[in-house]
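Worked example 3 (structure in, sequence out).
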């Protein structure tokens, strides 16, 4: 009788178990999140620095680099490589200048205002190294002259 009871128990457990999971398609792994220090890197992001004054916009599928005494340069915007608290973008402008952007999830002050940004930016444009800060473009546009640069709270729909 015991072998019959054991066989019934196994059958009951097998019948109660869920369908076996099918492995994910290795050709299309899920994309990792693109959030760094609360900044959604899939949305427009602005980097800026002083001494010398420079700026980079990451928006849509394009990087736009400009500076006080520099010609504007554009290039394709790749998806970032994110590891822990660091995101890296590497591209080449349409005129052949390599640009490497490293964003780190550490608070940053631009040294000219009383603003605090959520990301620190290290940018290499050709042979020049630039230091600055970064945040979402919407946070920068809505920030005051001082304080933390963060996205405004989402408005309820309706």
């Amino acid at each position: 009788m015991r072998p019959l009871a054991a066989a019934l128990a196994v059958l009951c457990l097998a019948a109660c178990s869920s369908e076996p999971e099918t492995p994910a398609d290795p050709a299309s792994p899920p994309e990792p999140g693109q959030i760094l220090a609360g900044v959604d890197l899939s949305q427009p992001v602005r980097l800026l620095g002083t001494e010398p004054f420079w700026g980079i916009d990451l928006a849509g599928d394009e990087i736009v680099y400009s500076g006080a005494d520099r010609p504007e340069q554009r290039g394709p915007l790749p998806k970032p490589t994110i590891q822990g608290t660091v995101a890296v973008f590497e591209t080449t402008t349409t005129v052949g200048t390599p640009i490497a952007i490293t964003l780190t999830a550490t608070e940053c002050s631009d040294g000219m205002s009383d603003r605090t940004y959520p990301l620190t930016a290290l940018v290499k444009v050709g042979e020049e190294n630039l230091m600055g800060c970064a945040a979402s473009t919407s946070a920068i546009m809505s920030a005051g002259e001082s304080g933390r640069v963060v996205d405004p709270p989402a408005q309820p729909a309706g």
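Notes: DSSP finds two helices and 14 strands in the chain. Helices lie at 2-16, 137-142.
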